[in-house]
Amino acid sequence: MFELTNKVAIVTGGRRGMGKTHALALAGQGAKVVVTDIDANECAPVVEEIKSKGGQAACFKMDVSNKAEVEQVFDEVIKQFGRLDVLVNNAGIYFSKPALELTEEDWDKMIDINLKGQFLCAQKAAKEMAKNKWGRIINISSVASGQVGVGIAGGAHYTASKGGIIGMSETLAVEWAPLGINVNVIAPGAIDTPMIQAAQIPKEAMDAMIERVPLKRIGKPEEVSAMVVFLASEEASYVTGAIFYVDGGWLAV
Ligand SMILES: NC(=O)c1ccc[n+]([C@@H]2O[C@H](COP(=O)([O-])OP(=O)(O)OC[C@H]3O[C@@H](n4cnc5c(N)ncnc54)[C@H](O)[C@@H]3O)[C@@H](O)[C@H]2O)c1
């Protein structure tokens, strides 16, 4: 099950954190993986790791908020690999700022990368996937997306971007079902990556959050990648427009 041989996948924000484990997991199932991020040099070790395990991979610099760059990289991937089957819209940023202090620039930066970036990549990917009447688009949101009880102080701009992903994805799933493209959302809880480390959440706040999570720990990036692999696979053929919480049960409380 979950065989991805001959499938071509693009992972955005793939140099580290969850993007890296998504790339490795997809390659582990046989996919050819294109690792993209704001710095191609930093993607190179991920590509080397995939190749050292016998897989095929390439890396490209691609800022997801830059439409011209997205179009150029996708065109180059299709030229090199001949097709595109899977897009993992993983790239994202987080920075905390009280809502009263948020500037227009802060707001635009967050929305441009986290929300517009996913749309630009999805739209370009869908045009290619439609040619083969087969595609899987996996958009990474968050439990901090307007779901009950997970508003985060200092994150109005982030939660707006992550909530937008859910509405957008449901619509894309409806529009693109006739094209053979399944669009789904993964909403992770707190996952141990450079992003959460950089957020410098005070220990008491982290302990309180973990206490609230039924599994009593934060998640590992690989635990989210397992869901990515399933949603990328043929076995997810009847799954579209859905949201998958990989959150240790956080939202169930
Ligand atoms: N870590 C968590 O607890 C958590 C929880 C819920 C959702 N998420 C989401 O998961 C995704 C992955 O996050 P992570 O925790 O691995 O963080 P991370 O910071 O380790 O990885 C994010 C990656 O996105 C890249 N990136 C940033 N701006 C970009 C741009 N403009 N174009 C292309 N790439 C860009 C970064 O360089 C980085 O490699 C993000 O969308 C994040 O919002 C994370």
UniProtKB/TrEMBL annotation:
Taxon lineage: Bacteria, Candidatus Azamiibacteriota
Pfam families registered for this protein in UniProt: adh_short_C2
Species assigned in the record: Candidatus Azambacteria bacterium RIFCSPLOWO2_02_FULL_44_14
SUPFAM superfamilies xrefs: NAD(P)-binding Rossmann-fold domains
UniProt entry tagged with the keyword Transport: no
Name by which UniProt lists this protein: Short-chain dehydrogenase
GO biological process: fatty acid biosynthetic process
Keyword Oxidoreductase part of the UniProt annotation: yes
Gene3D superfamilies in the record: NAD(P)-binding Rossmann-like Domain
Domain of life: Bacteria
Example GO molecular function: oxidoreductase activity, acting on the CH-OH group of donors, NAD or NADP as acceptor
Family: Belongs to the short-chain dehydrogenases/reductases (SDR) family.
Keywords recorded for this protein, A-Z: Oxidoreductase
